[in-house]
Amino acid sequence: MHGYAGRILWINLSRNNTRAEGINEGNARLFIGGRGLGLKIIFDLNLGLNNIDPYGAENPLIITTGPLGGTRIPLTTRAAAIFKSPLTNRWSYSTVGGTLGAYMKYAGVDVVVITGISPRPVHLVISDGRVEFRDARELWGLDTVETEHVIKREFRDSAVLTIGPAGENKVPYACIGHEDWRQFGRTGAGAVMGSKNVKAITFVPVGKTVDVADDKAYQDLVRNLGRQAVTNPGMVPYRQGGTVRLVDTGNGMGFFPSIYWTRVVMPNWENISWEKTLKPKYFIKNGACLYCPVACHKVVRSSDGEYDLEYETMMALGGLTGIHDPQRLIDLAELADRLGFDTISLGNTIAFLIYLGDKGIIKDAPKWGDYEGIKQLIINTAYRRGLGELAALGTKAIAEKLSVPDLAIHVKGLEPAAYDPRTLKGMILNNAISERGADHLWASAYAVDIAGQAGGRFATGEDKVRAIMDIEERNALYDSMLLCKFGRAIYTWDVIRDVMNAVTGFNYTIDELRETAQRIIVLHRYMNGTTIEQDKIPPRWLREPVEYDGKKYVVTEEEWSFMVRKYYELRGYDELGKPRQDTLVRLKILSQS
Q1: Which residue, 309, 321, 316, is CA-closest to 283?
Q2: In the beta sheet, which residues pair with residue 122?
Q3: Which one-letter DSSP state was computed for residue 564?
Q4: Contact present, 297 and 288 (Cβ < 8 Å)
Q5: Where is the Aldehyde ferredoxin oxidoreductase N-terminal domain (predicted)?
Q6: Are 62 and 104 spatial neighbours (Cβ–Cβ below 8 Å)?
Q7: Which of 56, 318, 358, 368 has its CA 20 to 30 A from that of 468?
Q8: β-sheet with 198-204: strand ranges across
Q9: CB 528 within 8 A of CB 90
Q10: Same fold, 7-203 and 236-407
Q11: Where are the domains positioned within the chain?
């Protein structure tokens, strides 16, 4: 098949064996790759959600690229990890940029399915579709960056995945590190990798070409999209300020979550402003994923050298906790990445403990803005020591343990990102219906709200629901082809069609691609058994107002109910939020009975 290496590699760590099989062309057409194909593999394994221990041998850790991986089409060097999350206890996924999406293909695989548990720490080296099992006991205990640097002394031209102490100690929101500062961030892939005693996975290329169906169309797209990636008005801000520029936007528009979701403008936020502080005083250079001309990553000065800072981490470890000293915030972010944390969940969890301490519910928590206390708690969480043992549970489990469930801010067990839905109301629906939980990238509704589309940021009507569903569908394809979601300004439906057809030769129509996206979205919900009960949002968003520009804002029950129920109607779900039988049949998830 064009665009694919044509190989799924199965690795059983308990038995220390592997097997390879080809990719079914029908599945490739219906589910593409990445998130879609990974979910399909789990679905075909008939693994009942409630029967799988996230830390058990039977939980598959699936790493997969897509048909665009390894091509020179801009913003396509991504990969996906699919697994049962130890944080949310749901089938989940994460994506990463860097070099992995290309180097998996160059190493001769589209998908790696890892099951079992190694009896000792192991380093998997994959090349030419084969696996070498290496002893990793000398790597165990190193942080993510140290581990990668050791491996790259031998495999200089490679893509490396690593875990840090947080993953080794199975903190449920541990991530998998890649290319120093990129991560499979959300929902705990690092903890799953650690539970299998896998310290690192290295992909070594044997060639660097991808067979495409229509070379002329492909070359034209590479050139045209390369130009658009740096000139399109929707892309220029990413090149100029990356994601960190949103610190200014979020505080200026009043959606920057602060002091554990009690404010939408951070006190002293100008101290960590991109334009006022970081750019003139800390910025060193731009960074980019492989073959990407946008270079949205902003590398800044840290106490240890250089660090790739991004917006969500600044909100979570700065806004939510009250840290507004730029150097200290950068250093906390670097520490968290090295230890192998999802910084969004980490910052939310630490801020929740500060909040509970402030209310007298727990003792020994740090105070707002307490750099030393927060730093020590981050370290203790990675090693599950002292208060870190409680922090290692994640926000939902902490709230349940302390019998304060209404105080925690999460959806489906996942802590939210940096867009308060009380002032960006498309995020009500985004957070509610995401299968990962409070996941801003499930439907990227913040982009609709910030741009003032579909009635503006405070609109909650049908036009807003439909606009969010459109991006939700494109995002499902971006996660499966794989494409960076920051390219949404140039990767419209017609461009998605043209790119997929030039590479795969499948001759998709836009309607077929929309149906494919719907299939991926609905399959995920069906596999998790999600209902309206799981789509509820935190009570504090409904009852506690935030103040911005002299006005107070909450999410009303009516806003949540209308948006969710209208979504169910348009998506083909019943009133409880379950996919209807006719929807499952229409999308070829189930056959006609």
Answers
A1: 309
A2: 135, 198
A3: H
A4: yes
A5: 4-209
A6: no
A7: 318
A8: 130-135, 122-127, 198-204, 159-162, 176-178, 182-184
A9: yes
A10: no
A11: 7-203, 236-407, 425-587
The one-letter amino acid code at 200 reads: A
Judge contact between 381 and 336, C-beta under 8 A.
Answer: no
Domain 7-203 adopts which CATH fold? Aldehyde Ferredoxin Oxidoreductase;  A, domain 1 (3.60.9)
Separation between Cα atoms, residue 459 and residue 444, nearest integer Å: 16
Q: Does domain 236-407 have CATH number 1.10.569.10?
A: yes
Look up the pTM and report it: 0.97
What CA–CA distance (Å, rounded) separates 427 from 414?
Answer: 14
- Helix 510-528 vs helix 462-481: crossing angle, to nearest 10: 90
Q: What is the pLDDT along the chain (593 residues), one digit of tens a residue?
A: 999 999 999 999 999 999 999 999 999 999 999 999 999 999 999 999 999 999 999 999 999 999 999 999 999 999 999 999 999 999 999 999 999 999 999 999 999 999 999 999 999 999 999 999 999 999 999 999 999 999 999 999 999 999 999 999 999 999 999 999 999 999 999 999 999 999 999 999 999 999 999 999 999 999 999 999 999 999 999 999 999 999 999 999 999 999 999 999 999 999 999 999 999 999 999 999 999 999 999 999 999 999 999 999 999 999 999 999 999 999 999 999 999 999 999 999 999 999 999 999 999 999 999 999 999 999 999 999 999 999 999 999 999 999 999 999 999 999 999 999 999 999 999 999 999 999 999 999 999 999 999 999 999 999 999 999 999 999 999 999 999 999 999 999 999 999 999 999 999 999 999 999 999 999 999 999 999 999 999 999 999 999 999 999 999 999 999 999 999 999 999 999 999 999 999 999 999 86
Q: Does domain 425-587 have CATH number 1.10.599.10?
A: yes
For tokens 């998996």, the residue is: 104
